User: Which sequence fits this backbone?
């Protein structure tokens, strides 16, 4: 085993270096504070792994993303979303029998308890879908109190399937509520993405039969979003889970973490940014200049990534898929051309080149969601639907790991040192 040595003053400590199965190695600093009195300060956890994980591997320099060893490109092209969900949850691709059993069980959990309708109806019609989804996800726990024990594998198993099954229904129903339309019940003869589209777009008066092009595009998008290592929302899910909160509460925390514009909320912001550019006549240079101005908080949404520094492999697949879907559906979306132009200008600009800022997964996904008939503020819940298997797999990994401890980071206290209380009558 290799070691790293840390010297501080007259103390020296040798720390084990843990090697991953790919290219990564990490210094295990668990004994650092006990042996030196020091801990580490690592803003945004850019240098810190909280745990070992075997769910997905990312090489940011090479633009590689693999789920359980399988390249994202192959999965996007050849797998179904539920097949990928199985892979993420159980570590191996299912055989035909396993997939049928898994699909059958997920399909049979798609209904929501009837009284959950009142939950959606308690929100204003213009409430943001991510807020409603987080509340509904958390509320699910109240319907299944007998299966919440995070240490009971059977409860965890059924909860994972309930979440996978009910998330599309919750999203479709919160959408229906927001657009003042009747709820549409799941249709168990349909596959996962078709059933979701059916619940979103059907009316009691008119059944929506999803176009295979649309189903295939949604399947790819869901797969591409299914996991992404220790991102902000997965970390939130694991953090809440580390306190042995139930899996519904943990996933609800993930939904809320995902809602932020620097994370999943960026897909909505990209589309709104492209719409603003279109309204301004399609000239992207003004926005590029604003993004480069450090005194202006504006950022080019859908650009940049903490890990990917050459390209985001998901963005490349989604870009091709956007062109393909729009062509097959016969849609000429001016926003796609603005996105192409924005990418071209940004990628030839020194500011973006020096900082290694490239289009990320959120840059082109909204253009496809729009083509599939989703309003802009629904984009982030679609990201959440895709990311769910990754959250579940990582939560399970944490719950099953005997080394898991409650997440409890240190802090470097920089506030006032000890001082005596001053009665209010004596304060200036
Ligand atoms: N537009 C303009 N400048 C940017 C951008 C951007 N989109 N992203 C980063 N920068 C600049 C940033 O100002 C900083 O410049 P300087 O060195 O002069 O201070 C430098 O690049 C490094 O940025 P950072 O914020 O330190 O990088 P980070 O790794 O902490 O942040 C990020 C990564 C994704 C939050 C950031 O690139 C960003 O805010 N992008 C826009 C939002 C976005 O598209 N988010 C989706 C991310 S991918 C999917 C997901 O995770 O949900």
Assistant:
């Amino acid at each position: 085993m290799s070691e790293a040595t840390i010297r501080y003053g007259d103390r020296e400590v040798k720390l084990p270096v843990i090697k991953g199965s790919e290219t990564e190695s990490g210094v295990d600093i668990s004994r650092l504070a006990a042996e030196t009195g020091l801990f580490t300060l690592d803003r945004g956890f850019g240098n810190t792994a909280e745990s070992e994980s075997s769910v997905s591997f990312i090489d940011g320099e090479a633009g590689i993303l693999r789920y359980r060893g399988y390249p994202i490109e192959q999965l996007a092209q050849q797998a179904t979303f539920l097949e990928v969900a199985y892979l993420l949850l159980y570590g191996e691709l299912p055989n035909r029998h396993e997939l049928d059993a898994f699909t059958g069980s997920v399909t049979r959990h798609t209904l929501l308890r009837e009284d959950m309708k009142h939950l959606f109806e308690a929100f204003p019609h213009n409430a943001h879908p991510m807020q409603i989804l987080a509340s509904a996800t958390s509320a699910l726990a109240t319907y299944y109190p007998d299966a919440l024990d995070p240490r009971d594998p059977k409860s965890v198993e059924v909860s994972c399937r309930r979440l996978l099954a009910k998330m599309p229904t919750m999203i479709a129903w919160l959408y229906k509520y927001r657009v003042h339309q009747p709820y549409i019940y799941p249709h168990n003869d349909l596959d996962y993405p078709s059933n979701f589209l059916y619940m979103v777009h059907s009316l009691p008066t008119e059944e929506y039969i999803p176009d295979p092009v649309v189903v295939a595009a949604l399947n790819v998008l869901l797969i591409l979003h299914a996991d992404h290592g220790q991102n902000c929302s997965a970390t939130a899910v694991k953090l809440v889970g580390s306190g042995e909160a139930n899996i519904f509460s943990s996933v609800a925390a993930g939904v809320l973490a995902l809602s932020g514009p620097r994370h999943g909320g960026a897909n909505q912001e990209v589309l709104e940014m492209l719409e603003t550019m279109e309204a301004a006549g399609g000239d992207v240079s003004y926005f590029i200049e604003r993004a480069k101005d450090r005194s202006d908080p504006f950022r080019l949404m859908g650009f940049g990534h903490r890990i990917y520094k050459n390209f985001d492999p998901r963005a490349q697949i989604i870009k091709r898929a956007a062109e393909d879907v729009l062509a097959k559906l016969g849609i000429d979306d001016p926003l796609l051309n603005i996105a192409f132009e924005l990418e071209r200008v940004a990628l030839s600009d020194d500011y973006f080149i020096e900082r290694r800022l490239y289009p990320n997964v959120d840059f082109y996904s909204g253009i496809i969601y729009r083509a599939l008939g989703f309003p802009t503020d629904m984009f982030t819940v679609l990201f959440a639907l895709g990311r769910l298997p990754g959250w579940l797999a990582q939560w399970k990994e944490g719950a099953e790991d005997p080394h898991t401890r409650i997440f409890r980071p240190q802090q470097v206290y920089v506030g006032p040192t000890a001082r005596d209380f001053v009665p209010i009558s004596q304060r200036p």
